[in-house]
Amino acid sequence: MPARLDVDLDRLRRNIMTVRRTVMPAETLFVVKNDAYGHGVESVAATAAAAGVRWFGSFDVDTGTRVRAAVGSSARIFAWATTLDDGSVQRAADADLDVGVGDPGYLDRVIAADRALRVHLKIDTGLRRNGVRPEEWPEFIESAVRAQERGAIRVTGLWTHIAETSDADDDDARELFVDAVDSARAAGLSPEVRHMAASAASFARPGFRDDLVRIGAFAYGIRSADGPDIPGIVPIAALSAEVVEVASDRVTIDIGSLDGLPSTLAGCVEVGTEAGPRHLMTVGVTTSQVRVYPGAMVGDRVTLFGPGTRGENSATTLAEAIDTVGEELLVRLTPALERRYLGAVTPR
Ligand SMILES: *Cc1c(COP(=O)(O)O)cnc(C)c1O
Predict the structure, then answer these.
(1) Which of 8, 131, 143, 177 can bridge 122 by disulfide, Cβ–Cβ 3.0-4.6 Å?
(2) CA 65–ligand 1 middle distance (angstroms)
(3) Among 12, 20, 31, which residue has the most ligand 1 atoms within 8 Å of its CB, making it the best to mutate?
């Protein structure tokens, strides 16, 4: 048996409770992009829905459609892919998604589809990834107002995305966002939700919570790189692999189709073995090697990261060793990897 990801859905529920309690009265939009950060979207979304989450964030329409099938018709599902072709706009409407629109050409396509699609208009407050620049915002809002008057779209949200790396930059972004909301309201829009904060800002900046916060990392127990541990937030997934060979100085583990494990981890981290943490010596395409430990046997499991393991790694501690972020390790896990769910609720 090669590598396996054990996902503890009770821990997911607890993290979600911590998040919801922290950000109240703002609502929590649970981000499940990238196959729920590698955890597997159906089980994770169904668990969150059963725990009371009403908003999901899918990024793309395919994932949004999968979430819809898993959680049913009452949830709101926000898909903010930068742009959608006409076919995808139709599929978004069929799955009753809310779409995030930060581009005039894309807005025109959504309007032309005339499906009364729910739209969240995005302003670029400095990140320059996507979103309408402040100088183009009034015109963008005007065309949304006109389309809404004829029933072609419904503007249900206003939003932006911030870097969460510097308080000063985030403060500047906040000012632009507040102005954009004010001008949209003055132009006649009355959106149901405003949202800008992701995990880090939702916790650190209460003034940024607005109506909705978009939470990915913290729900999965992935803390911010170089950020503190947060009480009530725990990793939910453990990645382990089986020992397939024991030599005098090392054991070989079968990481199988786990080709997402960065080779740069070799030599810089310890992983959990039956006898405690041991150096990860090499990372190959299908196998890796770990310093031998007393009593090592073929069939033992070595834990690369995860809760309650003898290695005490989290995805974030591994990531920090190679200067990346915890979600990077998780989203690289192949869909073919075996996932085992503890505490599962049955997806619809
Ligand atoms: C990924 C993403 C989030 C979630 O960010 P976390 O830091 O994982 O909570 C929120 N908003 C947008 C637009 C995203 O792309």
Answers:
(1) 131
(2) 19
(3) 31
**Rg, Å, the chain Cα set:** 22
pLDDT classification of 31: cutoffs 50, 70, 90: very high
What's this model's pTM, rounded to 2 decimal places? 0.94
The torsion angle over the Cα atoms of residues 166, 184, 105 and 120, rounded to 10 degrees, is 70
Query: What local confidence, expressed as pLDDT, does residue 129 receive?
Result: 84
Give the distance (Å) from ligand 1 centre to CA of residue 32.
Answer: 9
CATH 2.40.37.10 domain span(s) along the chain: 237-324
CATH of domain 237-324: 2.40.37.10
Contacts with 61 (C-beta within 8 Å, 6 or more apart), sequence order: 79, 81, 84, 88, 91, 92, 95, 97
> Which DSSP category does 216 fall into?
S
Find the residues whose C-beta lies inside 6 A of ligand 1: 31, 33, 80, 161, 198-199, 214-217
Q: What is the 3-state secondary structure (H, E, C) of 153-204?
A: EEEEEEECCCCCCCHHHHHHHHHHHHHHHHHHHHCCCCCCEEECCCHHHHHH
pLDDT of 60 > 70? The answer is yes
Tell me where in the chain the CATH 3.20.20.10 domain(s) lie: 9-220
Least confident of 14-28, 108-122, 126-140, 314-328: 314-328
Distance of CA 215 from the midpoint of ligand 1 (Å): 6
Dihedral in degrees, nearest 10, Cα atoms 83, 87, 89, 94: -150
**Assigned fold of 9-220:** TIM Barrel (3.20.20)
